[in-house]
Amino acid sequence: MSRSTPKNIIIVGGSLGGLLIGNALKRLRRNLNIRIFERNPTPLLQDQGAGVVAGQDVQKFFQIYDRTQTPLSISSYQRLYLDKSGNVIDREGSKQQMTSWDLLYHLLRTNFDGTQTEYAEIPEAEDGQGEVSYEYGCTMTDIQVPKDVAELVSVTVKRQSGETFTTNANLVIAADGPSSNIRAMYFPEVKRQYAGYVAWRGTVSESQVSKPAADVFSQKFTFFHTNGVQILAYTIPGKNGTLEPGERLLNWVWYDNYKEDSPEHVELMTDKDGKRHHITLPAGHIKDDVWTRQKSKARETLPPQFSELVEKTEVPFIQSITDVIAPSAVLEGGRVVLLGDALAGFRPHTAASTNQAAMNAMTFAQTVEKMMDGRGSEALREWEGHVLQYARQVQRHGVAIGDRSQFGEHPLSS
Question: Three-state SS for 227?
C-alpha cells in the first residue's frame, strides 16, 4: 500500500466495536476514507441501559483516542458478597473502573463523525484524518472478493428505504456483533449456542434506593450467589454521563436458569406483542405478568438490597447467554477481518467483551499502518495469532466460571 494514497475501508456494524476501530483508524492520520454501515434505523443507537466494566484496554483506548478527554468511569473499591439476609459475608479490596454503554457510545460518535450530544463537546478536526461517514439504516447483504488482489472488494448494502447499492473498498471490517452476518457467510457452521441461562438487567437511580442498599452498592461491586442464581450490581454514570453522587445509576445483572425451548423459556422470551426473541428481549417489551413474577421471585430469593433494586427498576431487559467463536480473524488474505464480538462473543462474567473490542481496534490500527508501509503479511499473521489466543483463553474462562456459577456449587453460595 502506498503511504500517500487514501484507502477505502468499510466497517460493518456501528455499535461500540465498529466505532472503536473507526476511531483508531481515523487517528492514524493516513487520509483513510472510512464508512461505517449500521443496520439500526435511527441516527443514534438507543441507550442499552447497560453497565460496562472498563478494563485496562478500554481505559487505554479512551486515554489515547478520546480527544474530548471526558471523565469515563466510576471507581469501585471493594467486592462484597452478601448472604440471603443481606449481611456482608466476604469483603475483598479490589479497585475496578465502571462505566456505561451509552457514555462510551456517545463519546465514540462525537470523536468519529462529530455527532453533537449532551455528553461532550465536539473536538476540532485534525489534518490527515481523511473522510468518515456513519450511515444508519444500512444492512450489508453481500460481499464479493475478486481473486486478483489488486481489485477492490465489492460490498452490497440495502438501505431502510429498500434501495440497494454497491460500493467498493480495499478492506472490509466485520464489527457486527456476536450474531455477525459476515462471520456467518464465511463460517455458516459457527452459530451462537445458548448456555442454559439468561441475564435479567436493569438500572435504578442512586437517589431512589434506601440507605442499606446504597451502603452495599455505591462504588462497590456486590454479589449474591445461591444454587442456579447469581446477581451482581455496581455503580455507573448517570444521565448524559454524569459522575455526580446521587445522580449516578446502580446497574444490576441477574443470571437465572431456563432450559432451552422449555415452556418457561418460550414465555420469557415472547414479548408483549407475541413476538418471540432468541437473544435479547428489549427494554419495554417484557410482558407485565412475566415481570410481576420475576419481582415476586426477587422478594423470595434475593437479599433485600438486591430485591429493592429489582422492584424499583422501571424498564428491565433480558439477554440470553451464549457462546460463539470463529476459527479465524483474517479472511481473504487480509481484505476481510473479524473484530470484537464478531470474532468471539464472551459470557458477561468475564467483563471482557468491550475490552476485547478496544484491544482488537488498537492493535489492528497498528497493523493497518504496517500494511500501508509494505509489511502486511507478517503483521496480519502476528495480529491474528494474538487476538485468537486472547479470544480462546477468555472464552474458556467465561464458560468455566459461568457453568460453575449456574450449574455447580459456588464457594460463597448461601
Answer: coil
10 Å CB burial of residue 69 (0-12, 13-18, 19+) is exposed
Other C-beta atoms within 10 Å of 403: how many? 15
pLDDT tens digit sequence for 244-301: 999 999 999 999 999 999 999 999 999 999 999 999 999 999 999 999 999 999 999 9
Largest CA distance in the chain: 67
DSSP-derived pairing of the beta strands 138-144 and 280-281:
unpaired
Model confidence at 130, in pLDDT bands (50, 70, 90)?
A: confident
Query: In terms of C-beta density within 10 A (0-12 exposed, 13-18 middle, 19 or more buried), how is residue 95 classed?
Result: exposed
**Which residues make beta-bridge pairs with 35?**
10, 133
359: alpha, beta or left? (left if phi > 0; alpha if psi -120 to 50): alpha
For residue 389, list its beta bridge partners: none
Domains of the chain: 8-47+102-191+323-404 (3.50.50.60), 74-98+193-322 (3.30.9.60)
Calculate the CA 40 to chain-centre distance.
Answer: 15
Residue 377: predicted pLDDT: 85
Long-range contacts at 280-287 (CB < 8 A, ≥ 24 apart): 280/317, 280/318, 280/319, 280/320, 281/317, 281/318, 281/319, 282/317, 283/49, 283/315, 283/316, 283/317, 284/315, 284/317, 285/317, 286/316, 286/317, 286/318
Query: Which stretch of DSSP H or E encloses residue 226?
Result: strand 220-226
